[in-house]
Write a structure and sequence with these properties.
Length: 138
């Protein structure tokens, strides 16, 4: 499953979605996690009520199931809901590795609800990609 971390310092979950300097993208599964990409933002870094800066951040989350944040305002919540991205505030201020480890460990156990659906969706999309690749090589 692809997830994002909103961060200013690149080591902690320390950013509000609306003024995050960076979104770090990771692929997370029960087996572990790997870094995928960094989306950096030079504009809209202040807490100023300008909701136009949310668009680029929400677009950067395309394909992600979850984003770890310090917080999200009402406009951001609505944008995330439309994009089907779940905001996770539980690791605010904590090292990024703690959030990644906790998610990996949660996937190793018997995940419930939306997390289980996301895990299954990820499994089925990988299986479909493998079948397409096998068909191409025939």
């Amino acid at each position: 499953m692809k997830i994002a971390i909103a961060t200013q310092d690149m080591t902690h979950v320390d950013a509000h979605l609306g003024w995050a300097r960076h979104l770090l993208i990771f692929d997370v599964s029960a087996e572990g996690y790997r870094y995928v990409a960094t989306r950096a933002f030079r504009q809209g870094l202040a807490q100023d009520g300008d909701h136009d800066k949310l668009g680029p951040r929400i677009r950067a989350l395309r394909g992600c199931s979850m984003v770890f944040v310090v917080d999200v305002g009402p406009e951001g919540e609505a944008g995330l809901a439309r994009a089907r991205v779940v905001p996770m505030r539980a690791y605010a201020g904590k090292p990024i590795v703690n959030a990644l480890d906790a998610l990996r460990d949660g996937l190793r156990r018997n995940p419930r609800g939306w997390l289980r659906r996301e895990q299954q969706k990820d499994h089925f999309s990988k299986a479909a990609a493998e079948r397409r690749e096998q068909n191409r090589s025939r």
